[in-house]
Amino acid sequence: MPLAIACVAICGCNSLPVARLAQPDPEPPAVASGTIPSLPGAHEARVAPFLFRSDRPLPEKHPALTTAASLRDRVAKELKIPPARGVILVYIFGEKGSFDQYLRKRYPQLPSRRAFFVAQGRQGGRDEDLMVLTWWSDRLEQDLRHELTHALLHSALPDVPLWLDEGLAEYFELEDFPLVRKERLTQVLADFNKPDRPDMSRLEGLRDIQQMGREEYRESWAWAHWMLKGPPEARAALLTALVDLRSGRKISLVERIEKVLPNARQQMVAHMRQLDESPAP
Ligand SMILES: [Zn+2]
Fold first, then answer.
1. What are the tens digits of pLDDT across the range 33-84?
2. Is pTM beyond 0.85 here?
3. How far is the CA of 274 from the centre of ligand 1 (A)?
4. Which of 40, 244, 252, 279 is most buried when burial is the number of CB atoms within 10 A of its CB?
5. Where are the domains of the chain?
6. CB 138, CB 114: distance < 8 Å
7. How far apart are the C-alpha atoms of 170 and 168, rounded to whole Å?
8. Distance 191 CA to ligand 1 centre (A)
9. Neighbours of 69 (CB within 10 A)
């Protein structure tokens, strides 16, 4: 039996805490007894590095497929990460019921959510199987953008800091959803009224996914947005950090950012206020 490590990110992270499991995930008894419902497989479509398997037809121009292609290109372009090694499987169940039933049987430790990213391998790291599980909800494209970002990051980087992983997934999820992003902005600016916010070093100190609540997701998104759309020094620090993460080095992004931008906090808040005042794209 392979030692499996499940690293699970839960979509809808904007409204619910994420659970990430890093403990061995032995095959549950239900596998042996054959009671786990089968994964979708009636229809298949390939948008490299993703291989979609779905209970419903996936015609060539379906938004799920075009979303995957544009996201793949955008993540590579903005983060300068190399193409994914291997295939990333994307299972789309036709109905919520069959999706929930599969999750309950296969991953009984997980809470109920619309979508998951799962990295499962022998010891974590570079030989993991990466897959996304979701169902045909009316938020399919938005959910895919979040979870496929996790998959692309994990295919290129052996280890991604928790807050940065979620911040970047949120960033790529929301860029094509201006109304949702606007709502997020209002919330994050309200969060920043607290005297000790924002604080990247606090986020960097979070090791357990249970510590990531709604506010931590919002702040991670805000930092990711600022680094990618704000001053070039912040973007350069992020891209250098991603290069180091690719080679397995541990990094402190906050130290690097503060070295080049000592007033990063104020700059980030100003960036968010400016974004809030700009008309929706
Ligand atoms: Zn996530």
1. 557 889 999 999 999 999 999 999 999 999 999 999 999 999 999 999 998 8
2. yes
3. 26
4. 40
5. 7-156, 164-277
6. no
7. 5
8. 20
9. 12
